[in-house]
Amino acid sequence: MVDKTPTRPASAPPARQGKVSDDVAAFVQKVGTLARPDAAQDGRLLFALDATMSRQPTWDLAQSLQAEMFKALPKDSALQVQLLYFRGFGECRASKWVIDAQALARLMSGIDCRGGNTQIGKVFAHARAEHAKRKVNAVVFVGDAIEESVDGLAEKAGQLGLLNCPVFFFQEGRDARVEAAFREFARLTKGAYARFDASAPQELAALLKAVAAYASGGRDYLKLQNSGQARALLAQIENR
Questions:
Q1: Residues 214, 233: contact at Cβ < 8 Å?
Q2: With 50 as the cut, is the pLDDT of residue 236 above it?
Q3: Where are the domains of the chain?
Q4: Could you identify which of 36, 87, 117, 167 might form a hypothetical disulfide with 147, taking C-beta atoms 3.0 to 4.6 angstroms apart as the criterion?
Q5: To the nearest whole number, what is the mean pLDDT of the chain?
């Protein structure tokens, strides 16, 4: 049973590398079950960020890894990406859907953290609205806290699951209650969970690239990603 108490992360103990690797392996395995985007249309990836003040200490690292995900895409990749972020007092903004990865990376570099509560419910609602217009192949959410009703968020997550709109949760930090909630939301949306950990930046960067490559065009683009995470993901897809 997920703890319903809204939570901000407390001081975290040092990360255990083995645990991070286990989470990444499970994440890769789960992403391998995604359906390939329709070849007649561009894949669509919604990338959502918690930009509240608690993420400030590692924000530069987070930005660099997130930017690398877009820069790694092949030039002819058929992937549309939309950036969504929340911060401050009710501020939640989305970019246009773009195929220019460099432009999106520049947009991310201009975002700074501001104090405020989480708005994960708005992320779920926005994903559902965009999916109703045209299929969203994957949603990635990066955050470290929950300050909303877990039951309410679970209901919205379940609605996305029914629509086959998977959400992949990257948790920064080691708050156990946040992890339990993120894992449950991932299950309900038919997505996956992994820890976003500063101790393993290259491993997680490779995973982000693999997810983006798959969302853009399935196994063909995934084959172009030279990483163990991408190869593991490709093996899952080819064996299904």
A1: yes
A2: no
A3: 17-238
A4: 117
A5: 74
pTM reported for the whole predicted model: 0.76
Name the β-bridge partners of 143: 171
| Record: fold of 17-238 | Rossmann fold (3.40.50)
- Between 129 and 81, the more confident residue is 129
Q: Map tokens 């432009």 to a residue.
A: 103
Measured CA to CA, the distance from residue 231 to residue 76 in angstroms comes to 20
Name the nearest CA neighbour of 208 among 143, 123, 141: 141
Contact status, residue 194 vs residue 27, Cβ threshold 8 Å: yes
Angle, alpha carbons 178-180-184 (nearest 5°):
115
Do β-strands 91-94 and 79-87 pair in parallel, antiparallel, or remain unpaired? Answer: antiparallel
Please answer whether residues 115 and 145 qualify as being in contact, where contact means their C-beta atoms are separated by less than 8 angstroms.
no
Token pair 């909303």 is found at 148
| CB of 207 closer than 8 Å to CB of 27 | yes
Q: What are the tokens at 177?
A: 């209650």
Amino acid at 83: L
- How far apart are alpha carbons 158 and 162 in whole angstroms? 6
